[in-house]
Amino acid sequence: MYELPGGGAEPDDMTLLSTVMRETEEETGLSVTKIWGTFPGFEYETSKSKAIQFNFLAGVEAGTESNVRMNPKEHCAFVWVDKTDDLSRYPMTKNMSQVVSDALNIIEETTFDTCGI
């Protein structure tokens, strides 16, 4: 199943944004350079508890696909998608597919500055 980088806060995370930055680095090897904002998340249940997913639109360091270093304990592949991609080609939960669609819509409709976090 495809999903976006994410995870829970750890005791050393001072803020929710610290969690975003740490999880992105741990799961992709990419450093967050900018957080542009949030967009709707959702609640879900795991085998252990209820959870809330918060969604952030973040920029990462520029580079090539070779800069991506997937954490093999969490992911085995990645793909960059854009608005022209058929998301049904990628197995995702209904909620995750909606999050990706929402993010692509925001990206398409927004002009981003390139200043840092």
Automatic annotation (TrEMBL):
Pfam families: NUDIX. Signal peptide: none annotated. It comes from the Eukaryota. PROSITE patterns: NUDIX (PS51462). SUPFAM superfamilies: Nudix. Residues 1-105 form the Nudix hydrolase domain. This is Nudix hydrolase domain-containing protein. It comes from Hebeloma cylindrosporum.
